Amino acid sequence: MGCKTSKNTKKYNRLSSRLSIQSRTSNYFEDRYIAPPKSIVHIALFDYEAKFENDISFKKGDLMEISSTLHGDWLMAYHLSNKKRGVVPSIYVAELGSLESNDYFFNNVSRAEAEMLVMADKNPPGTFILRHSGTVSNAFSLTVKRMDDNIRPANYRIRTDCHGFYMITQYEKFRTIHELIIACQANRVKQIRLVRPCPKPVPKMYYLLPQLRDNHETNYMRSNLQNQILQFNEMFDEKASNRASYLIM
């Protein structure tokens, strides 16, 4: 005859099994815990002088850690050199190592605008701009001031092959856009010579910080209302004077 299992033994086995399941479940979620994203380092594309109470000044090339975004136009930043915290305009910085962080890349620039920029009198032959292609999606184009023509710039489309390599001609292929640009600057790509990136125009500040924008709109509405009241009073006085002159006559 087999030994009978006591009630206490059965309770112990059920408890042990339940604790084992809880332990495995806990380990499952602990192994798959995703840490919050770390701050991303950005590089300054232009000089910026603080204009408000909460923003910070920086020079081109300064590095800052970006922790959050405020209304899309401003970023919360920590300056890695002077240790200051504050907000910075998003169009003045770019993520370090990204395509936008390079001086030669112009985002949201059309072919006509790129040609006008490189053909400026102050730019020497070989001045160039890398931009998104206006006709082919997910493609790039180079706009270059020719070495032998001061009237019409050259435009080269940068294509990718089936392996993801970038190329202008089928004979030279590169793993990254940056490698292609470096090769063109070193005269290693036939018939293409790049001397220097076109200087970027400094963005204009058409927007305000959120709290200043609210104050600006409030002041604008107040002044607009005051102007309407003044116009109404002037119109009322004019009608009153006309009525008085009519009664006198």
TrEMBL record:
Q: Which residues form the SH2 domain?
A: 104-198
Gene Ontology terms, MF aspect? receptor tyrosine kinase binding; signaling adaptor activity
CDD domains (alphabetical): SH3_Src_like
Against InterPro entries, the record matches this protein to: SH2 (IPR000980), SH2_dom_sf (IPR036860), SH3-like_dom_sf (IPR036028), SH3_domain (IPR001452), Tyrosine-phos_adapter (IPR051184)
Is the Ribonucleoprotein keyword given for this protein?
A: no
Q: Name one GO biological process term.
A: cell migration
* Lineage top rank: taxon: Eukaryota
This chain's protein is named CSON007913 protein
Q: Which organism is it from?
A: Culicoides sonorensis (Biting midge)
User: Corresponding gene?
Assistant: CSON007913
